[in-house]
Amino acid sequence: MFQGIFVDAIESNKKFAELMSSSGRQGLQVTFQKSTDLINLAKQVLASQPDFVALDYHLGDKNLPYTATPLAQLLRDTALSTTDKDCPIILVSHQNDLKAFFENVTAHRLFDRCFTKEDLDNASTHREQMLSLVKGYKQLIKNWNKQERWSVFLALTEPEKLEVAYQAIRELDKLKAPHQVAQDILRYVIDRRGILLDTDNVLAELGVAKTGKDVDKMLNILRQDKVMYTGVFSEGWTRWWQHRLADWGKALCDHSLGNMTAQERVSCLNKKLNLTLSPAKSRWKNDTDTLLWYVCDSCHQPIEDEFTVMAYDPLPYTFVHRKYICWKCVETGEYQKQGLKIDDGEELFVEKIQNGEIRSGT
Ligand SMILES: [Zn+2]
After folding, report:
1. What is the distance in A from the centroid of ligand 1 to the CA of 334?
2. Per residue in 282-303, pLDDT tens?
3. Distance 212 CA to ligand 1 centre (A)
4. Are 182 and 88 in a shared domain?
5. Distance 327 CA to ligand 1 centre (A)
6. Same structural domain for residues 109 and 148?
7. How many domains does the chain have?
């Protein structure tokens, strides 16, 4: 069983350690640690050699309060020389405290993930994700000295390495500690549409309506046919390989799915796989006879490339796709609630949509 530690200044927050734990031989047992002064606390955490560290944002006591940042920094620095002891560090705080954290830009690279205490109270997916972080780190450490370790981390087969060997991916092998690799994989491979897709984007590429029949059967077939990503952190975040999906679709329907309308894709899938899937509708045209490709980053509904604008999204890596906002979300303004901004270069379209010169089919 993996051992984790949860540090919080308030004793009554002990219950969250239990909410982070998962049972079983390969489970995670999180114990509570009340924070003390920074140096003693750091010593205690390091001495326990945890597999997982969760920190509340506000540590210390009334006399000497401090945030989780210096402790995390200290643990990260130590891991640079003892890579085999590196482990996930996450932030677990109340919603309001996390706001303070997000304003503290330098702290962002220190934590693998942030969870609110409200999340822990209300949902259960966090348990799988926390355990997945632990297991992912163990995989990174175990394979740290392998040749082309990036391809081992991502569980790629030898022949398909070429599909994914972007320079920025190969450069992962030059990073100095597992936590650096973990963060790049989480931020740019798992969290972003690019070489991997989330399930909503898979269904959009297949032209399948998310709410229709047989969607689970369809996803099970993709799982059996090994389209699913099985590399580090895959237990916590379900993702699918873009290149495997494209090859799979082409082999099944004799055409690249991107050249077929949603209706055509679904009629092929239904015929070949004996399913009764429904075609997805474009949110802008309200039509299924159309070339849907991905989901809008604001409303997560399938959309054609031609009916989107680019979001402002400075990108460090070329293998990550940009974020797009569908015209409907521009019309309703709902993208703003999702924290997205439109790229300045799209002003012309935005003006036409907002003054009604371009209108949706709904
Ligand atoms: Zn949208």
Report:
1. 8
2. 999 999 999 999 999 999 999 9
3. 20
4. no
5. 7
6. no
7. 3
| CA 231 to ligand 1 center in whole angstroms | 30
Question: From the CA of 103, how far away is ligand 1's center (Å)?
Answer: 27
Q: How far apart are CA 282 and CA 238, in angstroms?
A: 24
Per-residue pLDDT reduced to its tens digit, 55-69: 999 998 778 889 899
* Per-residue pLDDT at 101 exceeds 80: no
Alpha carbon of 80 to ligand 1 centroid (Å): 42
| pLDDT for res 81 | 87
Asked if residue 251 is part of any domain, the answer here is: no
Task: Domain of residue 61: give its range.
Answer: 2-138
Domain end (from 173, 190, 207):
190
CA 325 to ligand 1 center in whole angstroms: 5
Residue 283 CA to ligand 1 center (angstroms) comes to 8
Q: What is the DSSP string of 217-281?
A: HHHHHHHHTT-B--STTTTTS--EEHHHHHHHHHHHHSS-GGGS-HHHHHHHHHHHHT----B--
Task: Report yes or no on 234 lying in a domain.
Answer: no
Measured CA to CA, the distance from residue 72 to residue 53 in angstroms comes to 9
Q: How far is the CA of 295 from the centre of ligand 1 (A)?
A: 8
